[in-house]
Amino acid sequence: MNILWFFPTAGDGHYLGTTEGSRTSDIHYLKQIAHGLDYLGYDGALLPTGSNCEDSWVIASALASVTNRLKFLIALRPGVMSPTLSARMASTFDQMSNGRLMLNIVTGGDPVEQATYGNYLSHDKRYELTDEFLTIWRDVMEGKKVDYKGEYVDVTGAYIPSPPIQKPYPPLYFGGSSPAGKEVGAKHADVYLLWGEPPAVIKTKIDDMKEKAANEGRDIRFGIRLHVIVRESEDEAWESADKLIKHVNDDTIKAFQDKFASFDSTAQKTQSSLHSGTKDRGALEIAPNLWAGIGLAREGAGTALVGSPEIVADRLKEYKELGIDTFILSGYPHLEEAYTFAELVFPHIQKERSKR
Hints:
The protein is an alpha/beta fold. The chain has helices at 27-40, 56-64, 83-96, 111-116, 123-141, 179-188, 199-215, 234-244, 250-260, 266-273, 281-284, 309-322, 334-354, and strands at 2-6, 12-13, 22-23, 44-46, 71-76, 101-105, 146-149, 154-158, 172-174, 191-195, 221-230, 285-287, 290-291, 304-307, 324-330. Strands 1-4-5-6-9-10-11-15 form an eight-stranded parallel β-barrel, surrounded by seven helices. Strands 2-3 form a two-stranded antiparallel sheet. Helix 7 links the parallel strand 10 and strand 11 (221-230). Helix 5 (123-141) runs parallel beside helix 6.
């Protein structure tokens, strides 16, 4: 059981859907989080990517120099980055950080954002490009000199001057829920990422991807992205969940849903469908202790595990039994909640973590 946290590079705060209680994620704050994660024993942390986030490569480079063992899950952006240049960046970072790089393949699910980078490809064609990108990237990272002429990517004599520490290259994390995304994930991913849904749904998706990877002659691992709200008692945890969205109103919910309507991401559409557009707790608890309230006012992963330390640990173990071995977690505010989760839940999952 690998436990990763999250760097809030688009800002942080005590509430969703409001600037009240907000917190700027400057380098001083991010260093506090990095120091805390390193000290507490988290295995790594995800740096998000997107039009509202600061650049993940630059921030990770700054934070790697002030940490000792924490790993950094950084985005590779096919269609935005060159496969050759990104391979050099990845190899250099892996060397300079002593093997602490993990890579999150982000094809992109918002056509409006993609256009800002000059990428106007349709959904499925973006995944075709991703396939070409990763084919080149993996060969280059393995020390090959690559000539490749594809429909979207064309390189001649591509290489990197020195190899990464991790062999054959830092692990590739990938989440794509559409048929086109699953095809690329089965072919290239080391860890296939899912966003939080009820365990029965997750099991079906894991079984499906295991079969697709096997058809490619590959074995893959699985990870899940979840928020967590843990308190000493379950009642306190639910009170904190309600407090987190107390400033979210109908106009806020509508604004986010209108924004998501332009996305062509299958995963985002699924997350948006998990809540009923209401703050009613009964409607938002879509499985025992799995709460879809985050998705009312946040894009991306929109569900949280809510409960006491024992309950949340048990829910994590349920996902582990289904085949999940990597958990990418977060909470608001991220500094305090990193400590709360580690202090309250780590003792209950120490046996699972020691099997790494």
